[in-house]
Design goal:
Number of strands: 8
Strand order of the largest sheet: 1-5-2-6-7
Largest sheet: 5 strands, antiparallel
Helix content: 10-25%
Shape: globular
Radius of gyration: 14 Å
Strand content: 35-45%
CATH superfamily: Gamma-glutamyl cyclotransferase-like
Number of helices: 3
């Protein structure tokens, strides 16, 4: 399978959303969610947070984190966080997520029912799911709590 290119710039936003506005939102579904282990990486850059969902499936990996693959009918639970200091914050997050993840722009549904565009990290190689365990209800926090 060819390697997925990491898309991080405004051209990706414009190509996907049709807008050249700055996209300062990130959908988080795993260790970056509120109360989870990696949230402290971005806590000082979060200006707002709201519960949200997106289409996809998530898989838990033995290393203690999930990965998302796109799926038309399954739903993943998460939060949308609005970020400040975008260049530095996304630089830090891209390094944290590493080569196993690609940052892409996708539609997410806020708990208010509003649909918006946000960045999110997906597995760079969807075939990686064979190494993980499907989280049936799409909720990493519930899954991780039950495992602890």
């Amino acid at each position: 399978m060819p390697e997925r290119r990491r898309r991080t710039g405004s051209f990706e936003v414009e190509r996907t959303t049709g807008s050249h506005a700055v996209l300062d939102r990130l959908f988080v579904y795993g260790t970056l969610r509120n109360g989870q282990t990696a949230r402290s990486l971005v806590a000082n850059q979060i200006t707002r947070s709201i519960d949200a969902t997106t289409k996809g499936k998530i898989y838990a990996f033995p290393m203690g984190y999930p990965g998302l693959v796109e799926h038309d009918t399954a739903v993943v639970q998460g939060d949308v966080i609005w970020l400040s200091e975008l260049a530095a914050t996304f630089g830090l997050l891209d390094a944290f997520e590493g080569a196993d993840f690609a940052r892409v722009v996708r539609k997410v549904m806020l708990e208010t029912g509003q649909e918006i565009w946000a960045w999110l990290y997906v597995l760079a190689d969807p075939a990686t799911v064979r190494l993980g365990t499907l989280i049936e209800d799409g909720d990493w926090v519930r899954y991780w709590t039950e495992q602890s």
